């Protein structure tokens, strides 16, 4: 869909009714597991997390997965339980906190079926409709690091899942567990329950043609496959009456294997759920093999990915529809206006900025801290840890906010206007310090600016940081060389060095040839500034001309024009990218999309590190689809004017290269900080200058340093 820019959101912010409850607005926090509970009981960390999003104006809060038969059917011991009365006090404390903040509480009810890891750990076979088929494609695992594989193996405790097909007695028990769980939610003062019938959990497994191979009345036709979910809905309705709204989470489509649930089947199932007593349908998506299709479902990579499927469901029912899947405010406003949905679920966006709704209400949409779709939050769930957010260090520890006021106002000089420098300047100013921000470039952003070319989501963060620095009144001085003498002349109390990582050329024959570029020189070529060699005349002239007309000031214009422009530059026809980590992989994708024949040479085994795993898997898959020639465990031996020679094992290979981009050899260093410290200046270092961890490291280290000054 074409997304229209919005500054006001009258429909998104209007009240909406779901069954017996009315929400103040149409924004919903969907279930995202925080793994902050103990022995099934909700503790203060979970309450703080959800209450913060409620205080931010969110219309309804949906908890993470809550187990109807805890510990049976659980995927984590850290998820809340609903199977005993001992869980009610924690639920009540959560409901009270959410209500006090002005929002409604919905408790998601689940039995995880074939992904119920705790059943395996406790020696129980996992309950499934049919014995699961093995996944068709596990090739993404090659790009998991040994440390990541070790973490995933550790939580399995060396045990392998076993399965048993659910009997009729099992299904009767399961229906009763859902109904009793809903009764406890009602007793605790909740407002709604969400019955989870997607994401490979047991109800979703029964609904799926792919997962359900039964021949009894619970298998075969869609009516039979939907029978169990309908029985659960009716039992829950009988238990709670009109005391709770009943929402059903349904996959609008299953991705990644043949015979998955189709949008048409999903719409027909939604109509059956409405007849059974559902008050709303929450449309999501399911990846039948998460390792191959995670960014299709359940957490899509594309903005508004499920909008078409949600519209199909919406036409089939008369009850409200909630739509999830990278639903930015603009997308939600447009969908509601066009009649394709009634409510909008924003997950990762509300992790990044829990005050999103209040900012929209105040007409300050530009101040919403954006999610950059990096999947850092999601990755932690693979090993049962609490999610992190690259741009919001307070996620999982809401006590970090509000920032403590400075006890003494100081003059803070920040060197480097990348994400670490800008965030340091923003936070220090908010705390009450006077901040001067220096950078030798002609624009804010540093490597973040350059990363927006390959990763457009980063441009939203760049824009946010830029306007927040300006709004805070930071004294920004661009085109300023920050020597030790120049800094001391500013009489700072504290200096924060955020100059980024050091990028070296390869120490092989030909590493200094003019067509060999580091990230710094490539940035110069693309922006019309910086280190540009005489031999790169075509690119240099193009860059300078672009700068004269303002083209190279706009990442979006560079992305658009380079799709046409790079294709007829002879030096970019054959490109070799050396280094397959985050930067190298994204560059390879970027250049291949624009018609270059790209060879990606990585000395190790894994690509895309330190990207979060789901994003990494998608990036590698996309690079292959674009025809990138990926060479793993390869060592560059020599670069000539026309080729790059490398070895893989005992085999020597050569590929044509009219342009070579070096994305390896990145290291942390801050010589300016060392010089200042020797002169007695109080100095701190943030971002890649202290440890190479890209945006996440820059933002988190900036908070730590800026709150300690």
Structure, described:
- The protein is 37% helix and 17% strand.
- It is globular.
- About 3% of the residues have low confidence.
- The protein starts with 15 loop residues before the first strand and ends with a helix.
- With 709 residues, the protein is an alpha/beta fold.
- The protein is built from 26 helices and 27 strands.
- An eight-stranded parallel barrel has the order 3-4-5-8-9-10-11-12, surrounded by seven helices. It has a five-stranded parallel sheet with strand order 15-14-13-16-27, with helices on both faces.
Distance, first to last CA = 46 Å
Total number of strands:
27
Strand content: 15-25%
Classify the helix fraction into a percent range. 25-40%
Q: Give the mean pLDDT.
A: 92
Give, in spatial order, the strands making up the sheet with the most strands: 3-4-5-8-9-10-11-12
Characterize the largest beta sheet: strand count, sense, and whether it forms a barrel. Answer: 8 strands, parallel, barrel
Number of helices in the DSSP assignment:
26
Low-confidence stretches: 530-545, 567-571
The outline comes out as globular
From the helix content, strand content and strand pairing, which structural class follows?
alpha/beta
Radius of gyration of CA atoms, rounded to a whole number: 27 Å
């Amino acid at each position: 869909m074409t997304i229209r820019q919005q500054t006001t959101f009258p429909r998104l912010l209007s009240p909406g009714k779901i069954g017996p409850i009315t929400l103040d607005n149409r924004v919903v926090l969907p279930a995202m597991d925080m793994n902050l509970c103990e022995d099934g009981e909700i503790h203060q960390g979970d309450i703080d997390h959800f209450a913060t999003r409620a205080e931010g104006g969110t219309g309804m809060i949906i908890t993470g997965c809550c187990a109807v038969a805890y510990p049976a059917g659980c995927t984590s011991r850290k998820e809340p339980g609903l199977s005993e009365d001992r869980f009610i006090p924690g639920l009540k404390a959560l409901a009270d906190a959410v209500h006090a903040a002005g929002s409604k509480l919905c408790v998601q009810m689940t039995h995880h079926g074939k992904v119920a890891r705790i059943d395996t750990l406790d020696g129980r076979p996992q309950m499934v409709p049919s014995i699961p088929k093995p996944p068709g494609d596990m090739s993404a695992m090659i790009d998991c690091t040994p440390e990541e594989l070790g973490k995933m193996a550790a939580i399995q405790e060396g045990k392998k899942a076993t399965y048993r097909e659910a009997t009729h007695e099992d299904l009767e028990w399961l229906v009763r567990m859902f109904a009793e769980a809903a009764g406890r939610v009602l007793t605790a003062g909740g407002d709604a329950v969400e019955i989870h019938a997607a994401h490979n959990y047991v109800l979703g497994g029964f609904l799926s043609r792919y997962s359900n191979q039964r021949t009894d009345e619970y298998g075969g036709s869609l009516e039979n496959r939907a029978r169990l979910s309908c029985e659960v809905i009716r039992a829950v309705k009988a238990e709670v009456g009109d005391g709770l709204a009943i929402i059903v989470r349904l996959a609008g489509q299953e991705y990644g294997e043949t015979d998955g649930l189709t949008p048409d089947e999903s719409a027909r199932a939604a109509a059956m759920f409405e007849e059974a007593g559902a008050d709303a349908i929450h449309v999501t998506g399911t990846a039948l093999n998460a390792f191959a299709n995670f960014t299709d479902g359940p957490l899509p990579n594309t903005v508004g990915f499920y909008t078409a499927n949600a519209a199909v469901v919406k036409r089939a029912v008369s009850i409200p529809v909630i739509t999830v899947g990278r639903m930015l405010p603009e997308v939600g406003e447009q969908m509601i206006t066009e009649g394709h949905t009634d409510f909008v679920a924003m997950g990762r966006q509300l992790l990044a900025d829990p005050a999103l709704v209040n900012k929209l209400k105040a007409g300050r949409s530009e101040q919403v801290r954006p999610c950059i779709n990096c999947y850092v939050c999601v990755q932690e769930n693979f090993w049962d840890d609490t999610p992190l957010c690259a741009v919001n260090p307070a996620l999982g520890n809401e006590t970090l906010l509000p920032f403590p006021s400075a006890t003494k106002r100081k003059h803070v000089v920040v060197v480097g206007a990348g994400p670490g420098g800008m965030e340091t300047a923003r936070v220090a100013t908010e705390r009450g310090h006077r901040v001067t921000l220096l950078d030798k470039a002609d624009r804010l952003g540093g490597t973040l600016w350059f990363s927006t070319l390959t990763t457009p989501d980063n441009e939203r963060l760049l824009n946010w940081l830029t306007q927040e620095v300006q709004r805070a009144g930071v004294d920004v001085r661009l085109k300023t060389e920050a020597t030790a003498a120049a800094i001391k002349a500013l009489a700072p109390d504290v200096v924060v060095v955020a100059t980024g990582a050091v990028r070296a050329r390869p120490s092989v024959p030909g590493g200094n040839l003019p067509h060999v570029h580091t990230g710094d020189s490539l940035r110069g070529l693309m922006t019309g500034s910086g280190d540009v060699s005489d031999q790169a005349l075509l690119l240099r002239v193009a860059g300078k001309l672009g700068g004269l007309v303002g083209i190279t000031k706009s990442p979006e214009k560079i992305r658009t024009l380079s799709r046409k422009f790079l294709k007829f530059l002879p030096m970019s026809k054959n490109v070799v990218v050396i280094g397959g980590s985050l930067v190298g992989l994204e560059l390879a994708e970027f250049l291949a999309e624009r018609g270059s024949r790209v060879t990606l040479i990585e000395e190790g085994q894994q690509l895309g590190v330190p990207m979060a795993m789901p994003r990494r898997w998608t990036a590698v898959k996309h690079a292959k689809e674009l025809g990138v020639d990926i060479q793993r465990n390869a060592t560059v031996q020599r670069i000539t004017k026309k080729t790059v020679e490398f070895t893989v094992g005992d085999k020597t290979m050569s590929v044509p290269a009219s342009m070579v981009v070096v994305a390896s050899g990145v290291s942390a260093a801050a010589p300016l900080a060392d010089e200042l410290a020797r002169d007695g200046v109080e100095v701190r270092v943030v971002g890649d200058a202290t440890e190479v961890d890209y945006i996440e490291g820059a933002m988190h280290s900036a908070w730590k340093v800026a709150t300690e000054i």
